[in-house]
Amino acid sequence: MGKHERRTFITPVLKHRLVTGMFALITVLTFTEALEEWEDRLQGPLLLGVGLFLLGATVIVGSMSIGPRPLRSFGAGAWFVVMGAGAALAFAYRGSMGDVGSRGEVALGAMLLLAVTLPFLGLWMMVARPEQNWEKERRLARERGVDPR
What we know:
This protein is mainly alpha-helical. Helices cover 72% and strands 0% of the residues.
C-alpha cells in the first residue's frame, strides 16, 4: 500500500455493485409506479418507458461487475434496443409531464436523441458483433498459451 493511500472498507467493486443495486431498486420502483398509474393512460406509459430505459442500463452496467464476465456484443446490443424502445416510449408520452422547465426540456431532447441512436447501435452490435476488450484479452492469452482466467 502506498504512502498516501487510504484503506477503506468500500472497494471499487463493492461500490459498483452498490450503485447497480440502487439502480435496480429505482427500476423496480419505476415499474411499480407505472402499474399504479396505468389508468392515467399518459403517465403509465411514460413511466413504463423510463423503466425500460433504466432496466437496460442496469443490466448492461450490472453485467460488468456482478457476472463472471460482461455481456457479449449480441446481448449488449439487445439491451441497447430495449433502452431505445424505452426512450421512444418516454418521448412519445412526454405530454403527460406538464410544465417541465428547462431541465425537463433537456431530458426530453436527450430521450429523443437516445430513441433514435440506441436502436441502431444495438442492431449494429447484434449484427457486426465487434470483439469486446475482455474477449480480446482472453483470445490473446489463449494464443500465448497462458491460462485466460
